[in-house]
Amino acid sequence: MRNVMILLLGLALCFLAACGANESTQGNNGSGEVEGQDEAEPAQNDLDYPQKPISMIVPFSAGGGTDATARALAAASEPYLGESIGIVNTTGGGGAVGMSEGINSTPDGHTITMVTVELTTLPHLGLAQFTYEDFKPVAQINFDPNVIAVPADSPYETIEDLVKDAKDNPGAIRVSNSGTGSIWHIAAASVEQATGAEFSHVPFEGSAPAITAALGNNVEAVSASPPEILSYVESGDLRPLAVLAEERSDALPDTPTFAELGIDATIVGCPRGIMVPKDTPDEIVEFLEEAFMKGAQEAEFVEYMETNGLGLVVGNAEEFGEVLAESHNFFAELIPQMDLN
C-alpha cells in the first residue's frame, strides 16, 4: 500500500496526509464534530465480552508519547467497550519487556498492548525473540517523526553546529534516547550515518527520562518525537534543532527538517497501535477494532492529539498489519547497515 511504503522510505509526512484523507479513519468535518458518530454506546455482541476491566500494557515509562497516546485513547474508547481500561507501564529492554508480556498474556481480550515501531526493530537487533506475527493487530492510532533537541542554554544553535562538534570530537556529544535499539536510537544513528558524526548514545527506559536527562544537562542532546518535547519547547527549556522528516512538523513549525538542510539521513518514525496475543479469537479482535476506531474519531481525542502535537494516523487491523509487515522488512535491511553500539 502507498501509505505503508511512504512510512518506510522517508515520505512519512506524505503518509500522514494519505491516512488523514481516509474517510474511514478520520471523520472530522472541521467543525469540531465527528461525522457519522452518535453518542457513544458499547457495541452489541454475543461474545459475553468484556467480562471485566481491560488492561492496556504500555511498554515505556509514563510521560512519553506512547503513554500519552495510550491514556487519551483509553479514555475515548471506554464508552464503546463498556468497561474501563487500566494503563500498565511495563518498562525494560527498549520496549521488549512490555511487548513480551503482552504477547504472553491470556488471549481473551482483557489484556491489550499499545505497541510501537520497536516491535519491528528489536528482533533485527537480537534484542527480542518475538516478531509482529506473535500479535494480532487491532488498530493503528498514531505516527510521529523524530526530532533532535538540546537544552535551551546549549551552545549548539543549529544541527550543523552539533554535527560538526560530533565529527571533530568523536563520542563527546551524548545523545539520550528511549532505549537501546529504540526507534529514537536508530534515528540518531541515521544522522550519524548521513553526516559522519559520532555520538555517544545514552539509553533510558522511555522518552520521558531521556528528556529529563537533557533538561538536567546530563547529555548534550536528546532524540525523541515532537510531541514528547513540545511542552518543554513552549516553556523555553529545550531547543529543537531539526526534524527527521520531509516536511516540517505541525507541532514544531519553526524547526527545519534535515531534508531542507540538505542532510540526507534515512527517515524513520514511530507508528503506534493496539495489538493482542495472536490466539485471541477473531470475534474479540473485531469488537476491539470497532471500539478503538470509534474512540480514535471522538472529537475530544482528535483535539487532544492535535493540541499535543501527536500525529493522528488511524488504520484498521488489516492496514496496521500491513504497516508492521513492511516495517519489519525495511528494518531487516536497514539495521545491519548501521552502527548501533
Automatic annotation (TrEMBL):
The keyword Disulfide bond is annotated on this UniProt entry: no
Superkingdom per UniProt: Bacteria
Disordered as annotated region, ranges: 25-48
Positions of transmembrane segments: none
CDD domains xref list: PBP2_Bug_TTT
Keyword set, alphabetical order: Signal
Signal sequence annotation: 1-20
Annotated InterPro entries: BUG (IPR005064), Bug_dom1 (IPR042100)
Pfam family, one: TctC
Annotated family: Belongs to the UPF0065 (bug) family.
Name this polypeptide is given: Tripartite tricarboxylate transporter substrate binding protein
Organism: Halalkalibacter oceani
